[in-house]
Design goal:
Layout: E1 4-5, E2 10-13, H1 14-28, E3 33-38, H2 39-44, H3 46-51, E4 59-64, H4 73-85, E5 93-98, H5 100-112, E6 118-123, H6 126-132, E7 140-142, E8 145-149, E9 158-160, H7 170-187, H8 189-196, H9 205-221, H10 236-248, H11 257-275, H12 280-291, H13 301-309, E10 324-329, E11 332-337, H14 342-352
Domain 3-dehydroquinate synthase N-terminal: 62-174
Protein name: 3-dehydroquinate synthase
Domain 3-dehydroquinate synthase C-terminal: 176-317
Length: 354
């Protein structure tokens, strides 16, 4: 597959990814090459990744614990200490080999260490391949509140090696697939319909490529999320609040990012039907598609009240207003829409209907 060029970096795929990495390392002469992994990518991905690197470099491996619960400033501080102890300097590079938690955190670590060192993202999950690793968003959570601390800073390159998907559980693949479905809803009804036909995850390369193209086109037009890039947050206003709520309440099952966003996309489709022109048929199509792939989550009235209390922390908010991305039709989103309070319970009731 042809590499996808962004403003200051490129996304390379499979064999071209290793070629691009080897060319880059040989040309740049980094003082040290740090590779950050978690326990899963250390076990399943590090050895094949290292096997494909040509040349001799001064490597150091840094391992962090996996999971959203560890996407914190405390983890960053630990990594910064390790970088210092291992004599990292401004001519070092950090290669982030992992899923969205690791690439988000690793990009932030690199952006701050010594006021900024180079970094490369090597996403190993479907979610990070089509979303988290592309576009320059880096950062960590503030307690259970998603992505409250961070910067937008671009990597040297992103390397998508789809063989790493073979190491994932099916639940992780479904989580990433939710973001691909979102790309269809915000940019292309044709792509949405193509994705609905997918019945296994054995050959996703072309669809992954299309998702990266969609995200890259949006980011190129609005790299710092002033306007258009907000459409990538469809489903995320309520979805992030649901994800945060489940993360901080032990009695609730923790949801993976895509699972929470799938709920958010149904809820926000209902709001789109009520407040914009999204047809009834499209609303039912969205609900049916997501509920056929993602287990329905039960929310009590108390759950809903607490979830709605978290909306004030959404990053798209301004001047005290909660701003939504809603759909006028499939592939036609609208940003900065305000929602009357009385519609929230109706949206959750619609989601709960069989």
């Amino acid at each position: 597959m042809q590499s996808i060029t962004s403003d200051s970096y490129a996304v390379h795929f499979n064999n071209k990814a290793y070629e691009a990495l080897n060319d880059h390392l040989s040309q740049k002469g980094y003082s040290k090459v740090f590779i950050m992994v978690d326990e899963n990518t250390h076990e399943h991905c590090l050895a094949p990744f290292m096997t494909n690197i040509a040349g001799e470099y001064d490597y150091e491996i840094i391992e962090i614990e996996s999971g959203e619960i560890n996407k914190t400033i405390e983890t960053c501080t630990q990594v910064w200490h390790v970088l210092s102890e291992l004599d990292g300097d401004r001519k070092s590079i950090l290669i982030n080999l992992g899923g969205g938690v690791l690439t988000d955190l690793g990009g932030f670590v690199a952006s701050c260490f010594k006021r900024g060192i180079a970094f490369i993202n090597v996403p190993t999950t479907l979610l990070s391949m089509v979303d988290a690793s592309v576009g320059g968003k880096t950062g960590v959570d503030l307690g259970a509140l998603k992505n409250q601390i961070g910067v937008i800073n671009q990597p040297e390159m992103v390397l998508i090696i789809t063989d790493f998907l073979k190491t994932l559980e099916e639940r992780q693949l479904h989580s990433g697939f939710a973001e691909m479905l979102k790309h269809g809803l915000i940019k292309s009804e044709t792509y949405w319909n193509d994705l609905k036909k997918v019945d296994d995850f054995n050959n996703l390369d072309e669809l992954i490529y299309q998702s990266v193209v969609i995200k890259n086109e949006v980011v190129l037009k609005d790299p710092t999320e002033q306007n258009l890039r907000k459409i990538l947050n469809y489903g995320h206003t309520l979805g992030h609040a649901i994800e945060s709520y489940c993360l901080e309440h032990p009695q609730k099952d923790t949801l993976l990012h895509g699972e929470a966003i799938a709920v958010g996309m149904i809820l926000e489709a209902y709001l789109s039907n009520e407040l914009r022109q999204l047809p009834d048929s499209a609303l039912e199509d969205i609900k049916t598609t997501f509920l056929s792939r993602y287990t329905k989550v039960a929310f009590s009235n108390e759950d809903i009240k607490s979830i709605l209390g978290l909306l004030k922390f959404d990053k798209k908010n301004s001047h005290g207003n909660i701003n939504y991305v809603l759909l006028n039709s499939l592939g036609n989103p609208e940003i900065d829409v305000r929602v009357p309070d009385e519609l929230y319970n109706k949206a959750f009731a619609y989601y709960a209907e069989s």
